[in-house]
Write a structure and sequence with these properties.
This protein has about 650 residues and is of the alpha/beta class. It has 21 helices and 27 strands. About 40% of the residues lie in helices and about 20% in strands. Helix 8 packs across helix 9 and helix 11 runs parallel beside helix 17.
Amino acid sequence: MPIQQAPAGMDTFPKILRDHAKVRPDKVAYREKEFGIWQAYNWSEVNDHVRALAQGLHVQGVKRGDRIAIIGNNRPRLYWAMAAAQAIGAVPVPMYQDAVAKDIGYVLEHAEITAVVAENQEQVDKVLEIHDQCPSIKTVIYCDPKGLRKYEVPFLFSFSDIQEKGREFAIGNASFLDAEIDRGKADDIAVLPYTSGTTGNPKGVVLSHNNILCSSFNANEFEGLTENEEILAYLPMAWIGDHIFSYGQALVAGFAVNCPESTETVLTDLREIGPTYYFAPPRVFENLLTTVMVRMEDASKIKRSVFNHFLGVAKRVGADILEGRSVSFGDRIQYALGNLIVYGPLKDTLGLRRVHLAYTAGEAIGPEIFDFYRSLGVNLKQLYGSTEASVYVTIQPNGEIRSDTVGPPAPGTEVKIDEKTKEVLFKSPGVFVEYFKNPKATAETKTKDGWVMTGDAGFFDDEGHLHIIDRAKDVGTLKDGTLFAPKYIENKLKFFPNVKEAVAFGADRDQVTAFINLDLQAVGSWAERNNIAYASYQELTAIPEIENLLKENVEQVNADLANDPNVASSQITRFILLPKELDADDGELTQTRKVRRRIVAERYEGLINALYSNDSEAHMKAEVTFEDGRKGFLEADVKIIDAQTFEPQKKAA
């Protein structure tokens, strides 16, 4: 039976942490790579660090119900700061580490933050820059002292300084913290993550301990996760997925969380740790595969031949072997040999040798990419969820893994489809309490009887698996009444390694058109192999051979669409290779790389109008943000490329 409530006496995370320190004190809880060396912390040490920080926060005046911002890359001390805040009844607010000061300022002000725990000087500087608009902030704490020793800010303290204050306080108040932890209840607010703000300002999603614990308990039980798992925590701490996988499930099961040295060393650190439990969005799996294929193009003819042969074996029988289906003795021998000389070394290179459970979510993953990993023996699954669900809405069960669905409802979850709008609705113990200080948005999203409107359109197939089509508000029709689901089309385009991002247009118009961003690594490698010179991303988009390469990809999508009676008339007639990448710093993407359609449509209105004209070229001028934060403009004449469309193979009913 699905767990609807946490076990008695273990209904908050500080209580669970305290229990780990008693039950498994010497087991590794966290690792952090610094200066090329892995530093391990056991549960006893983690508990001591958290207790000292929690008491220090109390000394600084942090009270029950206060909000504490957590800003930085994945670091053990930042995870401990969340536990410390919860121990005294405060609420952690994890924030995106790459957000600019303005975006951080909105959340700090809206959440009425009283204290900030920041990773380093970069994050401290952003907080100090907008401190005047956030007068509620009384304390700023930094973990890494580099560059901060000469800052003369009265409310700025080091992590160790606050811990030392906590230890001094504990000398005369030995029972204080345990009493505070015992006061905690399952219905208390555990965390306040903010949504990525696709359509406006981000919303604070109030999640209780019970929400996070139920999702974590249910998922761990469903997948058989134990204290022996290893996970690499590299995704933004502000994202609910990281909070569930690297905090909720890790604390519930007691498994180890490994924090990489930096974003640049993630792949190296992944190989060194060899996680058993792994999550990555489709783009990461696509990039890993692109890297492999690019390397193989540069390998000797013999190596390519061996690789391609055993890849064929894996494609034919790998998934069947993974799922325990019947496979001939000869194929098993061939697969075992392939595992010895190809699959095993390849998984070692990717850091996936020990993975027995991997998830992907957020966007659709290409069927070929999904099947590739499963054929190698990586138990990759798709799931569907949201911040408002404490992640899990659907999960693919073992033995029912398919590339075209996101699976049936997760344990303890009910899912239904609105008959009129086709919107997906769900109800579960993980359903959020409310949007922070936003009762209107809460009422628009969550019904009185607990059903949450996801905003996504979908349907169930005959086997009870959910298919997601698009955002419900984005699903429209062409002028002739044909269904237009832009995300469905965009995902088909992004299945090709040459395409990094795509934006489709067509609602209330006669035909479908699109913007396409190239994948610089994949297309750049193709250009080099074909002796095509280029000096920049912009130059690459204007090369005729590249235009033809992407034209073939678009026309393959059109051929696929022609076979689907529901969207056969939504084929792409014209497209543009944008000479700049859509960028979160330019406001075109959210921090989780979701397209902000309204902003893109407004910013590139001239290009969209050109796509629906008889013009063969259009002029573009767009503001860009450089790596050092400076603003500038990019101007270019952009070619409009016509694509072949195909007759529908069968008529829609």
